[in-house]
Design a protein that fits this description.
Jelly Rolls, globular
């Protein structure tokens, strides 16, 4: 598979207000990579905002992943959103339909 690296940064301004916890959170993706297959499914990985903070979501494997309960769906809590602070993300991905795929992520220099 193809071996690639990406980096991006996010900052929430001092005026940022998170929507209430009762809000519908189907649009919380701040950054994502989607596969191009006709079967759809979740993004291969995304940084996601929720009422309680940031999360990193990943989806992969032999089957199309559509829900958090599907095999191959992973989520890691990053923590509460800090305002006026840069979040520097770096990703290393080896795309593969086999078992030799790889996903690594760093936030502010920590893996």
């Amino acid at each position: 598979g193809q071996d690639e690296w990406w980096a991006h940064s996010l900052m929430f301004p001092p005026s940022y207000v998170a929507p209430p916890a009762g809000a519908v959170w189907n649009w919380g993706a701040l950054f994502d990579f989607h596969n191009s297959s006709s079967g759809g499914g979740q993004p291969n990985f995304m940084v996601y905002a929720t009422p309680t903070g940031l999360e990193l979501h990943m989806a992969g494997g032999a089957n199309t992943v559509n829900r958090p309960t599907d095999p191959g769906y992973y989520s890691i809590a990053i923590g509460p959103i800090a305002k006026n602070v840069w979040y520097d993300f770096v990703y290393h991905v080896k795309w593969s339909s086999g078992s030799d795929g790889l996903f690594q992520a760093w936030l502010n220099g920590r893996q």
